[in-house]
Write a structure and sequence with these properties.
The complex is a heterodimer of chains A (447) and B (635). Chain A is α/β, with parallel strands linked by helices and 447 residues long. Chain A has three domains: 75 residues, SH3 type barrels, CATH 2.30.30.520; 208 residues, L-asparaginase, N-terminal domain (Rossmann fold, 3-Layer(aba) Sandwich), CATH 3.40.50; 113 residues, Rossmann fold, CATH 3.40.50.40. In chain A, 25% of the residues lie in helices and 24% in strands. Chain A has eleven helices and 23 strands. In chain A, helix 8 links the parallel strand 21 and strand 22. The radius of gyration of chain B is 31 Å and the shape is globular. In chain B, helix 11 packs across helix 13, helix 12 packs across helix 13 and helix 19 crosses helix 20. In chain B, strands 1, 4, 6, 7, 8, 11, 12, 13, 20, 21 and 22 form an eleven-stranded mixed beta sheet that branches. With 635 residues, chain B is an alpha+beta fold. Classes of the chains: A alpha/beta (447), B alpha+beta (635). Chains A and B meet through strand 3, strand 4, strand 7 and strand 8 of A and strand 2, strand 5, strand 6, strand 7 and strand 8 of B.
Chain lengths: 447, 635
């Protein structure tokens, strides 16, 4: 509570704020150097110093007032807490499909407290309906908050919980599941669930936003309605990611969970399907499948849940001059598998051959993906590749390095048998690789 | 319309000004793009929708939500020179442009304002599409300043820095086009307290603020670089916010018209009250009168009916005659209703019985209409031809405006027209529309930084005026004109580099240019360089003082050409002393009778005749000297 009361203030300023007995939202007056500043006490950014008080002036502007020795701070009035009155819920149409929305921390909807500037996530079903009312025309929603995490803090343990929660929802009979997720590691989580949830009867669709949900221009609502539509009605039953296809609010691309990668730090269309086409595109509330090669929705299908993961897997990006001892460290620390992100067709410097050999001899599975991101590894073309194959390095075809890593994390959650692990790695479980490399621009990226 | 003398004190006129001026910086406010506009076809276009954000109170701006529900889409146009991912709202803003902060601080200190200790950038919700984000980034730089306007002290509430908005380039149905080149150009905003009491004073205050801003030497020049917003209210009226007055000269007129509008609206509400009509007497009941117009000659209605659209009508009891009442020149109550209908119903316009029969609508049709809507003699009918949905929305808006007319003056945000009148823009936004821009850390202003700016403050306009009079021996009138002309700086440059008499230069930069403009010459097309060259040529005697005006006019039509080329083309090259002597000699010879008769007194007429011959090609002093010499010889 007190954290909320004095949010962000520390040191000297916090003392003053406490002494005057004001909290966030109260009206205060600061008099110094012949000037009077009156306004509402506003939370201070945690990176701010301990010498300024932030107030919101009557004009609506915030300013920081430096607390000098001559400054006098007084409380002028008590702030009124805004009481949110949700608009009435839209009537639930019993004919509509049921979709479960699970929040893990990506803010897909929010409300602004203009008084203090706080932006609060809207997470419950009624919140979502009130912020994105058109959801009520697509599906009957139930919503659940599983975690509130920045996606960089998500670990395989969280994947386990996500997989189990989705399985519960599917058992309850929903027509699809949407998972709201921070975008940074959404691709990894999507891959993880692709492996952990097998024989899916309905779609599981990840969704996030690249531009904050508080801004009127946010991509959040469009992505969310797209994801809910896909979960409710799409003919596929796979784990997917639904995000903007371009920088326009026009089309939503639906990517296969094992093929998708965040390829831009900030653009709305940051997510791309690598080495394949997205599985579907949504435009004007219409789902268009872009491939025939997908697992069909089939509610009679019996879901298999394999939610265990091992954390003893490493992803190592090769670079010129890399110290070979890095690989030794992983071997010495008991890692079971290493994914090398090599150059070009799948190469690393020959200075790494010795530690790689040692790794393989110690029973560590070493596999090769390419840091080119696009394209397939082929280790038979050059001597280096052939040498690495001879050392026992497993080429990963056109699989993304990130997906390969997640796959091995999952594999070693299923087995500790090296041979079985190898067999699983080479088995196409969730469309994570393909035998053919088709030429093509990404369909949904066309202007 | 008769403009009666209005006693502004009695009606309690209060005007507050917000002056927005683009700054002359190397880059935009939140990224390194060039702060310039482009004319070519856009290289990039993208489509967006803006969704109003809900506030913690569950409120959404009604106008914004309405637009959203209507499915309004925005097509943004850009090129790669003037916009990057920041303007496209595809990347967070970069840190605040410190050059702009410095200019704003300079202006603030010149207005005796107190800079804030820490600048916090805010997001001001603006959802019409003019900002790709859906908000405008803005921050207060300083508070509580004052400026002197004649003898009055005008309080400056705040000096802010904000990003300019995208500019609208078109609108078709529910698609609005904006070009984002202008988005992000730094703007300084100066807001006065609502202490201005007359239209004339509003103009003077705006002029004074503009002068101080120009005195920083770091603001953009030219049309569109400065925009004024006005807050106007009178007793028993309402607060009207008028946006985007581009020309300073227009400000007094805008205030005058707004006062007229409010006074007229008050009068209308009193008369309607006297007629016994109340807001609740106006019923939300719309009549489908498509039948009435099946055979109509009115093209607009015909077209709508052909498209299977409807003609929908609304009855306004006891409103007969009020719709054609003029509020300000060419703006009637009916016009205001039409503005509302266009905004809320996206219709082309409305028809009402106060202006009919006309537009191909016959008296018979009007009669049939009145019958269909079952109106009495004193009632008015408003109708619209469009889709059922649009027509309904339009008439709802008309109804709302009619109810407001009974109550008096509605609070509105209006946009300025080029003739000084205004039109409805949107309802006034609620107060709750600003929240922090968390992507930009607060910026502390140190005392050291302020000291540095303080020691380099530019001259205030009044100081400069005194200095101009003193240093260049200009009279007060000329010095004042020079200050108002925006050419004071050029004046000093020219005097320093050409050594031409300051009074000559000042007179040219003020009176001569003004006279040319009056004659329809586009003097703004003469470059500063051309003017400087002009005086260099004058100093060396290549052209005569008398030729300045003609050469300037020629230069305005010949971009990049020199005064020398102008003189050649116009035949205004200065005559040599020999050529001049020859002409004097000739004229004296032609008039030898006169010279014989009058002796040295013939100087006046001879001078006149010579000057007529050589006007613009010779210096009058020299001509006089030569004539005197020759006459002395002859006599």
């Amino acid at each position: 509570m007190s954290a909320e009361k004095f949010s962000g203030y520390k040191g000297e300023v916090l003392e003053v704020v406490r002494r005057v007995d004001v909290e966030i939202g109260d009206l205060i007056r600061i008099t110094k150097g012949g000037q009077v500043f009156e306004g509402i006490l506003i939370p201070r950014s945690e990176y701010g110093d301990d010498k300024h008080i932030v107030i919101k002036l009557r004009s609506g502007y915030n300013i920081g007032v430096r607390l000098t020795p001559d400054a006098k701070v007084e409380k002028v009035g008590k702030g009124e807490k805004p009481a949110f009155v949700a608009p009435p819920l839209p009537e639930q149409n019993p004919a509509l499909p049921k979709v479960s929305i699970i929040s893990t921390g990506g803010t897909i909807a929010s409300r602004v407290d203009y008084r203090t500037g706080a932006v609060r996530p809207a997470l419950t079903a009624s919140d979502l309906y009130s912020v994105v009312p058109e959801l009520a025309d697509i599906a009957r929603i139930d919503a659940q908050i599983l975690f509130s995490l920045y996606s960089e803090n998500i670990t395989p343990a969280h994947w386990t919980k996500m997989a189990k929660t989705v399985a519960e929802k599917i058992e309850e009979g929903v027509d699809g599941v949407v998972i709201a997720h921070g975008t940074d590691t959404m691709g990894y989580s999507a891959a993880a669930l692709s492996f952990a949830l097998q024989n899916l009867p309905v779609p599981v669709v990840f969704v996030g936003s690249q531009r904050s949900a508080d801004r009127p221009s946010s991509d959040a609502a469009t992505n969310l309605t797209g994801a809910v539509l896909a979960a409710a009605k799409a003919p596929f039953a796979e784990v997917a990611v639904a995000m903007h296809a371009t920088v326009s609010d026009k089309a939503i691309a639906v990517h296969r969970g094992t093929r998708v990668r965040k390829c831009h730090t900030s653009r709305r269309d940051a997510f791309k399907t690598i080495n394949a086409q997205p599985i579907a595109k949504i435009e004007e509330n219409h789902i268009v499948m872009l491939t025939d090669d997908y697992k069909k929705r089939d509610p009679s299908q019996k879901l298999t849940v394999k939610p265990n993961f091992s954390e003893e897997v490493a992803l190592i990006k090769f670079y010129p001059g890399m110290n070979p001892a890095v690989i030794d460290w992983y071997v010495d620390n008991g890692y079971k598998a290493i994914v090398l992100e090599g150059t070009g067709l799948g190469h690393v410097a020959n200075s790494l051959f010795q530690p790689i050999k040692r790794a393989v001899d110690n029973g560590v599975l070493v596999a090769m993906a390419s840091q080119c991101i696009w394209g397939r590894v082929n280790m038979s073309v050059y001597d280096t590749g052939r040498d690495l194959l001879a050392l026992g390095v497993i080429p990963l075809e056109d699989m993304l390095a990130e997906t390969a890593t997640v796959k091995l994390i999952w594999i070693f959650g299923q087995t500790s048998n090296a041979e079985e692990a190898k067999k699983l790695l080479k088995t196409n479980i969730a469309g994570e690789f393909s035998e053919r490399s088709i030429y093509g621009e990404e369909e949904t990226s066309k202007p | 319309m008769t403009t009666e003398k209005v006693d502004y004190t009695r009606i309690g006129l209060k005007v507050g000004l917000e002056v927005h001026q683009q700054l002359e910086t190397a880059t935009k406010l939140f990224c390194a793009c060039r702060p310039e506009l482009f004319k070519e076809e856009p290289q990039i276009t993208f489509l967006r929708r803006l969704r109003p954000t809900q506030s913690e109170l569950g409120q959404i701006d009604p106008a914004a939500y309405f637009e959203f529900q209507k499915g309004v889409k925005i097509l943004y146009e850009a090129n790669t020179q003037t916009a990057c991912l920041v303007e496209m709202d595809e990347e967070p803003p970069h840190p605040l442009n410190m050059e702009a902060v410095e200019i704003a601080l300079t202006a603030a200190l010149m207005m005796n304002a107190t800079p804030v200790d820490e600048i916090h950038v805010m997001r001001k919700t603006v959802i019409d599409g003019s900002n790709t984000t859906g908000f405008q980034r803005t921050c207060v730089i300083a508070l509580n300043g004052t400026i002197k306007v004649d003898e009055k002290t005008v309080p400056i509430q705040h000096v802010s820095l904000e990003e300019d908005a995208a500019r609208k380039t078109g609108e078709e149905d529910t698609l609005i086009r904006y070009r984002i080149d202008r988005l992000g150009i730094p703007l300084i905003e100066i807001a006065t307290a609502p202490v201005i009491k007359t239209p004339k004073e509003a103009g003077e205050v705006a002029l004074a603020i503009g002068k101080i801003l120009r005195a920083t030497g770091r603001v953009k020049r030219g049309l569109g670089t400065i925009r004024q917003d006005l807050n106007i209210s009178i007793i028993c009226g309402a607060l009207t916010e008028i946006k985007g007055v581009q020309e300073l000269e227009l400000i007094p007129l805008v205030v005058e018209y707004e006062v007229q509008r409010q006074l007229n609206l008050i009068k209308i509400s009193e008369e309607l009250a006297k007629a016994g009509i109340r807001p609740e007497n106006l019923k939300e009941e719309f009549f489908d009168v498509t039948e009435v117009f099946q055979q109509t000659k009115c093209k607009v209605i015909q077209k709508a009916i052909n498209k299977n659209q409807k003609v929908l009508a609304l009855k306004l009891p006891k409103f007969k005659g009020f719709l054609k009442r003029e509020l300000m020149p060419n703006i009637r109550l009916g016009t205001e209703m039409a503005d509302r209908a266009k905004f809320w119903g996206r219709v082309g316009g409305i028809f009402h019985t106060d202006e009919l029969p006309a537009y191909g609508i016959t008296a018979q049709e009007v009669e049939a209409l009145r019958k269909a809507v079952r109106v009495q003699e004193q009632d008015a009918v408003v109708f619209v031809a469009d889709t059922m949905e649009n027509a309904t929305d339009a008439l709802k808006a008309v109804l709302e405006r009619a109810r407001e007319a009974i109550k008096g003056v509605p609070e509105e945000t209006r946009a300025a027209n080029p003739d000084g009148t205004t039109r409805y823009m949107r309802p006034r936004p609620g107060a709750a529309r600003m929240y922090p821009e968390t992507d930009i850390p607060p910026i502390q202003i140190t005392q050291k930084h302020l000291e540095k700016i303080r020691t380099h403050l530019p001259e205030l306009p009044e100081q400069k005026l005194k200095r101009l009079m003193h240093e260049y021996a200009l009279n007060q009138k000329l010095a004042k004109q020079l200050m108002n002309s925006e050419h004071a700086e050029l004046f000093e440059t020219i005097v320093k580099e050409s050594k031409v008499s300051p009074t000559t230069v000042a007179a040219f930069l003020t009176e001569t240019l003004k006279a040319l403009k009056r004659d329809g010459i586009q003097t703004e097309k003469i470059s500063q360089n051309q003017i400087r060259e002009l005086f260099k040529a004058l100093a060396t005697g290549e052209i005569a003082k008398e030729a300045l005006q003609d050469i300037a006019a020629w230069l305005s039509k010949h971009e990049g050409k020199t005064p020398k080329e102008a003189a050649e083309s116009l035949g205004l090259k200065t005559l040599s002393k020999e050529e001049l002597e020859k002409i004097v000699e000739e004229i004296i010879t032609q008039n030898k009778d006169l010279v014989k008769k009058s002796g040295v007194k013939a100087f006046g007429p001879i001078m006149g005749m010579v000057m007529r011959e050589v006007r613009g090609r010779a210096n009058a002093e020299l001509v006089g000297e030569l004539i005197k010499k020759k006459l002395a010889e002859k006599v």
